[in-house]
Prior knowledge:
Two copies of one chain form a homodimer. Chain A is of the alpha+beta class and about 425 residues long. The first copy, chain A, has nine helices and 18 strands. The model of chain A is unreliable at about 1-10 and about 380-385 (pLDDT under 50).
Amino acid sequence: MVPHLTTALTGPLLDLERRFLDAMPTIEHWFRTQWLEHAVPFYASVDLRNSGFKLAPVDTNLFPGGFNNLNPDFLPLCVHAMQSAVEKICPEARGVLLIPENHTRNMFYLQNVAQIVRILKQSGMRVRIGSLLPEIKQATTIELPGGGTLVLEPLVRQGNRIGLEGFDPCVVLLNNDLSGGAPEILKNLEQEVYPPLSAGWYTRRKSQHFTAYDRVAGEFAALLDIDPWLINPYFATCNQIDFHTRAGEECLAAQVDAILQKMRIKYIEYGVKNDPFVIVKADAGTYGMGIMTVKDASEITGLNRKQRNKMAVVKEGLAVSDVLVQEGVYSFEDINGAVAEPVVYMIDHYVVGGFYRVHTGRGVDQNLNAPGMHFEPLAFKDCCTMPNPDCEPDDAPNRFYAYGVVSRLALLAASLELEAAANPQ
Amino acid sequence: MVPHLTTALTGPLLDLERRFLDAMPTIEHWFRTQWLEHAVPFYASVDLRNSGFKLAPVDTNLFPGGFNNLNPDFLPLCVHAMQSAVEKICPEARGVLLIPENHTRNMFYLQNVAQIVRILKQSGMRVRIGSLLPEIKQATTIELPGGGTLVLEPLVRQGNRIGLEGFDPCVVLLNNDLSGGAPEILKNLEQEVYPPLSAGWYTRRKSQHFTAYDRVAGEFAALLDIDPWLINPYFATCNQIDFHTRAGEECLAAQVDAILQKMRIKYIEYGVKNDPFVIVKADAGTYGMGIMTVKDASEITGLNRKQRNKMAVVKEGLAVSDVLVQEGVYSFEDINGAVAEPVVYMIDHYVVGGFYRVHTGRGVDQNLNAPGMHFEPLAFKDCCTMPNPDCEPDDAPNRFYAYGVVSRLALLAASLELEAAANPQ
C-alpha cells in the first residue's frame, strides 16, 4: 500500500524535515493560536511539490473534488473532522444542502460527491443535493459505477432561503467552484454558505492566495528560523494579457525572466544543479487548464497559435486575462517510474488524508493535473497527522508530517485570503 | 480482524438499533447541543453489556487504562481527538505533565502510559511523566517489552505550581484514579488538572454516576420515544455495610430483592426467558474487585467468610462500606465461544476506538474484568463513529454505532456527575 518514493534526499529537505519534527510542539502550538485568530476554511485540498531541496504548495483548492480518491481507511478521520467543522460553524445544523459542480456524466466527480454525502451523513447530518443545472427540473437519480445512487434535485428559493422541495436546510455547502460567477439564486441568502461565494473562481485569484501565503510562510519561517524560500515559490502576475492578440506578452516575458533570475541565485546558494523553470497559468481557474512550463523568457514571445489558444481559455470557456507566473518546483518523487505529486486533504483544520497524483506521460518539471493522470492513495499508516519523533526524518510517516505542515500553511493562507475578500480595503 | 459475533438478535435490540440509525441526525444534533451546555470529560472508557434485548453501560472509567489495547489503526483518530481536547481546554498548552498509576512492574499498564504519551506527542505536546511514588527520587527509565522506554520523574512542587526538574507544564493530565485519596502535592494547583481531583475514586461514587445516567438516559429515551430501561440498568445503594461483621446485610438483601422484582416485570413485558440477576459491587473503586453476581437475595445472607472477605476490600486495600446493587445485563456476545463485552474509548467527545474484553472462564452473567481476561481490538472498519445508514442494523458497523451512542450517553452522565461534584448543593 505504501508507494515507493525515490525522493532526492539531498541536504536541505532532510534538514527542513528534521527541523519540523524537532519543532513539532512549537509548530502545533503556533497553528492552534492561528486558528484562534482566523476562521478556518470549511475544507480544502493542497497540491504540493517536493523537489528534495524544497517543499511547497503550488495550488490550493477550496472546493475540493477527489474525496473518493482518499484511502477508505481515512473515512473515520473525515467524519471526526466534519463533526468538528459542523460544531464550530453551526451546532444547530441538521440539514445540509450540498451544491455540486454541473457534471452529470463525470462519474469520477460524482463519486466524490457521493463520498462527501457519506461523510456528512456519518457525521449525523441530513444531506440532500441541489443542482444548479437548469435541466434538473425534478428529482433525478444517477446510478454510480460500483453501486449506490445520487439524487440531484432542483433548487427552490423562497425569499432569502434556499432549499429543495420539502427540505429547508440550515447550511449550504458548495462543492462548485463558481468559475462561471456567483449564481443569482445563491446571493443574499439567510442561510450560511460554506465556502462563501467570494471564494469562487469567478473572483478568486491565485495571486491573492500566494500573497497571503507569503505572509504565512514568512511568519512560519521566522518561527523556525529557516529560509522562507524552502517552503515558498516565487511568483508574479501580469494583467490585461490577451493571448490571441499577443497583448501583454512583454510584461509576461519580463516577469518570467525576473523569476528565473531570482531562482538562479537561490539555486546557486543551495547548490541545485537543475535548470530553473517557471509555470505560467491563469490567475483564476482550475482543472489544470491554461498551464505552461517555461524555461526561458523567449518561449513566451515565440508561442505559436495552438499554444496561445490553449493558454487563452480555462474552464467554462472563460478568457484568460490575468496570468500568474510561479516558480516551478521540480517533483523528484516518482511511483513506479512515473512523476508523482502529493495532494493533501483537509476538513476544518484537520489533515484527513491524501493521495499521489501520478502521470506516466509527464516530466519532473510539468503540471501533472492533466488527462492521463491517476491517483495512488496514501496508505493509512502514512497519514500526515502522525509523525513519530523517535524515527528518522525520511521515514514515511515523518515525510508526511512535513506535507501536513506545509498543507496547513496553505490552508491558513486561504483563511487570510478569504478574510481579505470578505473585508476589501 | 473482525471478531465473529453471535449476538442473540431477538426483537428489541434490532428495533433499538434501527431507531438509533433512523434517528442519527437527531441523535448527533442532540449530542452537539449537550456539549454546548456541559464540559466534556477529558477522556473516558465505558464498559457495555449487550444482551440482545438491552444495551447498557455498566461502568465508566474517567482515568482509562488500556489505550495500548486499541487497534493501532485508531491512533490517528486519537490524535485528532486529542488535538481537539487540547484546543478546547487550553490552546496555549505545550507542556503536559502526565501522572500515571503507581504501577512500575505492570507492563500492560505501562504500555498504556506509553500509548497516551505517544498520542499527546503526536498532537504536538511536550510530555513528561511525573510519578507519585516516593521511591522515584530521580529520573528512572523503564524498558518496555516490545521496545521503547518510559522515564518516570519525581514531582517538584514550587508554590502552587507542579512540575518536574526543568519542566513547568501548563496542564496536568491524570491517569491515576486516586483510589487512595487526593495527594497533597496535587491540591490547590495553579495549573489546570484533567480530570479534576474530584473525579478520583476516593470521592467518586458509581451511584452518583448512574444517578446522572438516569437523567441522561431518560431524556434521550424521550427524544427517541423508547423505553429508557432498554439502555439503563436499575440500581440501588446500601451504605454502612460491613462485610466482616455482616452489618447492613438486610439492607443489601432487600435491595437485591427489589431490583430482581422490577427486572422480572420487565423480563415478562419483553418476553425474556432468562433468570434475572444483579451485580453487587463497591460503590467506589475499580479494577473489577469486590464484585459478585447474585440471583436471589438469600445468597447475600448466606455468604461464607471467604466470599465476604473478597467483597470487603478493593484496590489499595480500601474497606468497602458503600455498595451498589446494579441490574445485571447478560452478555450474549461471544468470541470463539468465550463471553465478551465491548469497552469503548473516548477522548474529548469523540469515540476513538474500543475492544472486546473476553474471558474464557466466565459465564454470560458474570463480571469479565478479572484475571484471565484478554482483549480483542475492534477492527478499524467497525469503528463506532461510522454507521452506514444504507445497511441493515445488524451489520457490524451499525452495531458499533449503537455502542458509540450508548457510550457517549455514559460520557455525558460523567459530565453531569463532575459538574455536580464541582458544585455540591
